[in-house]
Fold this protein.
Amino acid sequence: MARFIKDRSNAKGLAPGSLVFIGKQKMEQPVLQLIDYDSERLSEKEIDSLNEIKPNLTEEGVTWLNIYGLHEIELIRELGHVFSIPSLLLEDILNTDQRPKVECYDDFDAFILKMIRFDESLQKMIAEQVTLILGKNYVVTIQERKGDVFAPVRNRIRQKKGRVRLNDNDYLVYALIDTIADNYSVVVETLGKKIDDLENKIFHSKEKGLTEEIYKLKTELNYLRKSIRPVKEVITGYLKSESSLFQEKNKVFLKDLNDLVTQSTEAIELYNNLVSDQLNIYNTNMSNSLNQVMKVLTIFASIFIPLTFLAGIYGMNFQYIPELSFKYSYPIFWGIVIVIGIGLIIYFKKKEWL
């Protein structure tokens, strides 16, 4: 399956709002995790059905429903019924190739973002789609599979650390997006270290395959840019919107978050230019090395051309060549050869060609 544009053949020709999963199934069965809390109480459990969440929606505090597994269409359809989510948004949620964006409705705001991690075994970036829905007293997060960057937020909730337990659900959404953005910085830094190490190889190593390594890094940077750059537009657009679900006192955190994403996107652009420069430098070094080899070969050829000319003359099969009958012809020939060779070498050195 393509990384930059995923196969959409299953959705071809269908009406807008048709629910079709686009992507790769990453879990056998979806898992529904429910966390309900306020400043004093905390309840955390796995549920079997979305109907189990309805009593929590009428209580005070924050209800956080996290769904692992995005492939089950009926579950997403049921989610739409429970939280009154339009079919067009459900279609976007099921499309794991959806560009990061924010949608504001009367009863909720929806953020579709990318969660990035670097796979050491594959040596490439892996992007997973995550959807965050901010309602009046609930938060819904939908992920492709278990294993995410939200663990620090869960630990802060469990241990009453920070402001999460003391604030409403809009602060929880900020904390989750902030964790995703922090992870952007981590993966950009990881790629940056590889780019810095590659720079040392370019100048101090004769290893083969550097072109392939540079190309892979440039591909990963472009993949990162595709996934991260739209997030800045999401946050900026949301700050300008008139959504009433995010309190003004917490919007200042979104502004700080915008700066963090901007820093990551600028670092990506910087590294992208750096990799391009490294590729140019590598090609230049290779050309210079080839030119040096050609220069040495040309000098040797220039020295041996007149010597070959002399050897050719006296190697001809004419019956009468006067010099051949002279007693000292052979040492004289070698003397001429040596003088010409040394003379050409001295000449080349004076011209600084050697």
The radius of gyration is 34 Å.
